[in-house]
Amino acid sequence: MSRAKALLEQIHRITTQPWTLMEVCGGQTHALLRHGIDQLLPPEITLIHGPGCPVCVTATARIDQALTLAAQPDVILCSYGDMLRVPGSDGRDLLSLRAAGADVRVIAAPLDVLALAQRHPERQVVFLAVGFETTAPATALLAQHALAAGVSNLRLLVAHVRVAPVLDQLLGDPHCAVQGVLAAGHVCTVMGEAEYVDLAARHRRPIVITGFSAEELLAGILACLRQLEQGEHRLENAYASAVNANGNGAARVLLERVFEPVDTPWRGLGAIRAGGYRLRAPFDQLAIASPDQGSSETSEDCCPSGLVLQGLLRPNQCPSFGSRCTPDTPLGAPMVSSEGACAAYHRYQH
Amino acid sequence: MCLAVAGELVSISEHADPLWRMGDVCFGGVLRQVSLACVPEARVGDQLLVHVGVALTVLEPEP
Ligand code: SF4
């Protein structure tokens, strides 16, 4: 019998009552739907898709800022491919600006931005830096290298967000139906276990660090259910091949040296206490100030992505899903992003 | 954008400052330069988990 089948059997065997789990990471949402795991679980198990897609939670004000900068003739604006199609407050995106002549470039690695700035000393190179703690060390490294190399035409528009604070806020909400959490493996590769040990204890819910393959997801779900059935609430690491208890020490030192936590609006969720990063001195000389940090933001009328990100609305329950809002004509970020919950539903459930 | 990908470290360009240590990593036949700043312990032949150009961990060998 395959390992996946054996895990599924155990899951069926131990489940005696309804449980609601949340997977935090959009990559996990996609994998769960791609493998049809949501269909194979016992009917008692409900999976809620968490806010784990940094593209989806980047505040509209930050996208607007990127759009304004990209429209300036001396600016080269770079970011990851998914960011180019996220609509700003007026519905425009970076891709449409590029079609109209703006210099917008897709990069695969932040260090590539340094080389780009060095090749174009006459231009301002702006990097729209998004991502969770998994991605932030690469931006931190870029900041270190840029200062060391004395590059003066590189600026960072930082929209990095932190996972533990948003989980803290979601789990603290009295309406929150989530009983157990599958934590995002790759975030923990960097951050380690400590923050999550604390969250599991404080919110009295099991949290299981989980990987991304079918077997890893099933192992995470099984570990979480086992705790729930036994009335436990601990942090458990079901992804030990890539996550050790302390995370990655060098990456955490980089993060600490370059960034400091700051209250940050998440698209659709409002302000999250310490929910993001900003550059600290001396790296703040690379920063493009963000006027909105510390303020709050509510979700747009036409796209209830905030409810989706909190697990209160399934993507296919959204009135626009599949009609006005599709991957080709996205109304909101969760349909744009390759890790967004709405895109996952559209791709795997049609 | 935020998944990490595993590949094998095939060569290292050492540097006095560990922040600048780079390596060539092979992803299914495709070589890419990645930063080794966060994996000072990495050796040639290791399987690395790489994310946006930065190696984040040396994967435990399969038992
Ligand atoms: S289906 Fe579209 S409009 Fe509805 S929540 Fe998802 S992204 Fe927003």
| Low-pLDDT sequence parts of chain B | none
Low-confidence stretches of chain A: 293-299
The CATH superfamily of the domain at 59-160 and 248-286 in chain A is HypD, alpha/beta domain 2
Number of domains of chain B: 1
Distance between the termini of chain B: 30 Å
| Overall residue-averaged pLDDT value of chain A | 91
Radius of gyration of chain A: 20 Å
CATH class identity of the domain at 59-160 and 248-286 in chain A: Alpha Beta
Rg calculated over all Cα atoms of chain B = 11 Å
Care to describe what's here?
The complex is a heterodimer of chains A (350) and B (63). With 350 residues, chain A is an alpha/beta fold. Among the domains of chain A are: 59-160 and 248-286, 3-Layer(aba) Sandwich (Rossmann fold), CATH 3.40.50.11740; 305-348, no CATH class. Chain A is built from 16 helices and 11 strands. Chain A has helices at residues 3-14, 26-34, 37-40, 54-57, 60-70, 94-99, 111-119, 136-149, 163-172, 185-191, 194-203, 214-229, 249-258, 305-309, 333-336, 341-348; strands at 19-25, 45-52, 75-79, 103-106, 124-131, 154-160, 180-184, 207-210, 235-237, 259-266, 270-279. In chain A, strands 2-1-7-8-9 form a 5-stranded parallel β-sheet. By secondary structure, chain B is mainly β. Chain B has one domain: SH3 type barrels (Roll), CATH 2.30.30. Chain B has strands spanning 5-13, 22-27, 30-35, 47-51, 54-58. The radius of gyration of chain B is 11 Å and the shape is globular. Chain B starts with a strand and ends in a 5-residue tail after the last strand. The chains are: A alpha/beta (350), B mainly beta (63). The A-B interface holds A 25-27, 53-55, 80-82, 108-112, 130-132, 134-135, 137-138, 141, 144-145, 148, 186, 189-190, 212, 240-244, 248, 250-251, 254, 337-339 and B 1-4, 18-20, 34-35, 37-40, 49, 51-54, 56-57, 59-60. Iron/sulfur cluster binds at residues 303-305, 308, 315, 318, 320-321, 325, 331-332, 334-335, 342 of chain A. Iron/sulfur cluster (SF4) binds next to helix 14 and helix 15 of chain A.
